Amino acid sequence: MVDCGEGTQIQVRKVRIHFNKISAIFITHLHGDHCFGLIGLISTLGMLGRTAPLHVYAPKELEPVLSMQMGFFCSGLEYDVCFHGVETTERYVVYEDKSVAVKSIPLSHRVPCCGYMFSEKPTLPHIRRDMIDFYNIPECYRNNIKNGADWTTPDGEVIPNSRLTLPADRPRSYAYCSDTRYMPELYKQLKGVDLLYHEATYCSDNEKRAVLYCHSTARQAATVAHNAQAKKLVLGHFSARYDDENVILDEARTVFPNTFLADEMKVFDV
Fold it and tell me: For 94-107, b where at least 16 C-beta lie within 10 A, e where not — what string?
């Protein structure tokens, strides 16, 4: 989960995701709309009988606040909350497992803030079921073939691996750039990203306000996506001054056509 604002639990229930499927939460910065729901979620997980650890990755400034809240509201939890302080001014791997790596993305806001890049690790090639069946290759040899081995038939014929497999899926990536002023060099950290979320609080007619409050305009967000050669851009964090958010979308699409607006419960393919 990325960020945990007030009302997170309601939204999780709406999309019918089981609470215990959440294993890690990545907080971008310490403004209420990004972290006010965290202590409530931690408490609810305890009441649901969770036993698996929950890992929280957040700016290091959150640790004493969270520790105080947990001491007051969440004593007696039967699971561990493992806090990992993130240095928001550095780009480095903050989380890694066998399938994905997560890097921090330094951003520029009114408080310490970072985004996160989620990158899939390369996977093994796909087995060609038709060829496996044709050569009657036993199940126990298939992992070897996925890892590059050829197959030798009982008659001594060597079947090259390239005939037995199809190329692996290309690893995908998703970057979440939370509240930030426009950073002209940000695109260098996002090169070739499949899906980019970037805040777009204002249109260009409010660029001075964006600078004042360390936010970005739709055109600026689209410029980042264009320069990064992203595949798709999703905009969010819209100012309440816009009754029709399509003006934000229209502005961004003049720079980066494959742009979409974030919306409650909307699903985007990576």
Answer: bbeeeeebbbbbbb
- Residue-wise pLDDT for 53-95, tens only, equals 999 999 999 999 999 999 999 989 999 999 999 999 999 999 9
Closest-CA residue to 124 (of 148, 140, 102, 141): 148
Measured between alpha carbons, how far is residue 127 from residues 13, 100, 120, 258 in Å? 38, 22, 20, 33
Amino acid at 161: N
If 0-12 CB within 10 Å is exposed, 13-18 middle and 19+ buried, where does residue 72 land?
exposed
Q: pLDDT by residue (tens digit) across 203-262?
A: 999 999 999 999 999 999 999 999 999 999 999 999 999 999 999 999 999 999 999 999
Q: How far apart are CA 41 and CA 73, in angstroms?
A: 11
pTM of the model as a whole: 0.91
Q: Which residues are catalytic?
A: 33
| E strand residue ranges, 121-172 | 126-127, 151-152, 158-159, 165-166
Q: In this structure, what token pair is assigned to residue 5? A: 């604002």
- Which ranges of the chain would DSSP assign to H, the alpha helix? 8-14, 32-35, 38-47, 62-73, 129-134, 142-146, 161-164, 207-212, 218-228, 246-253
